[in-house]
Specification:
This protein has 337 residues and is an all-alpha fold. The protein has 14 helices and no strands. Helix 1 packs antiparallel against helix 4, helix 5 runs antiparallel to helix 14 and helix 10 packs parallel to helix 14.
Length: 337
């Protein structure tokens, strides 16, 4: 469902707060050589401290994500966190620097697969917290004037749930397949803007198509589909060019043989990919809302009798009897003498 103006204002505040917090710690997360390509596996302060620093700086993102998810659409927190992280990714450069600074036997793509696992764990924790505490925060911390109307009939199940059902898994596989094919053909250069833009377009379309083909409310596998695509791309490169030396890897990069999904960094998938998925699901929710409104209007005929001010207003408009012109009353004829 598309956000209201109130929800958009809250989301903007959440994005700004989270982005400033992450940008403040960008320098320690970069490589010691100062080259492009932010990877937790070769941060200048070490992988453990880099993860802890990123989590500490992500506290504003976590708090704001849970709040905006409680005030409206549960996917709002995923969108705001991904968008703020995408700003950090945009300031960190492309994978070109990561390829150039690798050493022999470094296993760059194997290391990126490990980093993907860390990003997946972080996103799963965020989705679990949103699912677990959304109703509690909405009831106790969100004032009524900030609560966005959210149709429970349509979207009470549109939250990530960690259960193995067929429909969510099929939807995730469809989104991952479409996402992999889209990244393979759209990501043509390692430029940061081109990579981020491609991921946004690809996963918006892929998530929208998957949500329409398989209408499932459990979106956890849809949300994780960008990381699944990245895992497939890195695994393919690790199997194909894993034993390559740093010179051979650089030559493959310069020859254009490292293409498609392997040209994006894990942080690109964990940010732009998530924003695209949340946008695609939101568009599908908006269409579901319109479709449901049309069904309500079609299935409920006009009810006879006067309408009162307490009568419920349907999703598609006002009660049909409320503004109906009163029928003229016929006066009985007097009998003639």
């Amino acid at each position: 469902m598309l956000p209201t103006l109130t929800q958009r204002a809250l989301m903007l505040i959440a994005i700004v707060a989270a982005a400033f917090a992450w940008l403040a710690v960008r320098l320690p997360l970069t490589a010691a050589q100062g080259s492009s390509g932010l990877s937790l596996m070769d941060a200048r302060i070490g992988v453990v401290l880099a993860c802890l620093l990123l989590l500490a700086a992500g506290l504003p993102a976590l708090i704001s994500a849970m709040y905006v998810s409680a005030s409206g659409n549960p996917l709002s927190g995923i969108f705001t966190t991904g968008f703020a992280l995408m700003i950090l990714a945009g300031q960190s450069g492309s994978m070109a620097g990561l390829i150039q600074r690798q050493q022999d036997g470094g296993g760059v793509f194997a290391a990126l697969m490990i980093e993907l696992g860390l990003w997946a764990l972080a996103w799963c924790v965020l989705m679990f917290l949103i699912r677990r505490y959304r109703d509690l925060i909405r009831a106790n911390l969100v004032p009524p004037r900030l609560q966005t109307p959210f149709s429970r009939k349509l979207t009470e199940e549109d939250t990530p749930r960690f259960v193995l059902h067929v429909a969510p898994i099929v939807a995730g596989l469809i989104c991952s397949t479409l996402g992999y094919l889209g990244c393979r053909y759209l990501i043509a250069t390692p430029a940061t803007g081109q990579v981020i833009g491609s991921l946004l377009v690809v996963f918006t379309c892929a998530a929208f198509a998957a949500r329409e083909f398989v209408p499932t409310g459990n979106v956890v596998f849809l949300v994780l589909s960008p990381l699944i695509v990245a895992l497939a791309g890195y695994a393919h490169m690790a199997v194909s060019h894993g034993p390559a030396s740093s010179q051979d890897l650089t030559a493959l990069w310069q020859a254009g043989q490292i293409t498609g999904p392997a040209m994006a960094m894990p942080i690109h998938y964990a940010s732009a990919g998530m924003v695209g998925v949340a946008t695609g699901i939101g568009l599908a929710q908006a269409i579901d809302r319109v479709r449901f409104a049309e069904e309500v209007i079609t299935e409920k005929p006009d009810q006879p009798g006067p309408a009162t001010d307490d009568a419920p207003v349907e999703l598609g408009g006002v009660e049909p009897d409320k503004f109906r012109e009163p029928e003229p009353q016929q006066t009985p004829e007097k009998p003639t003498e």
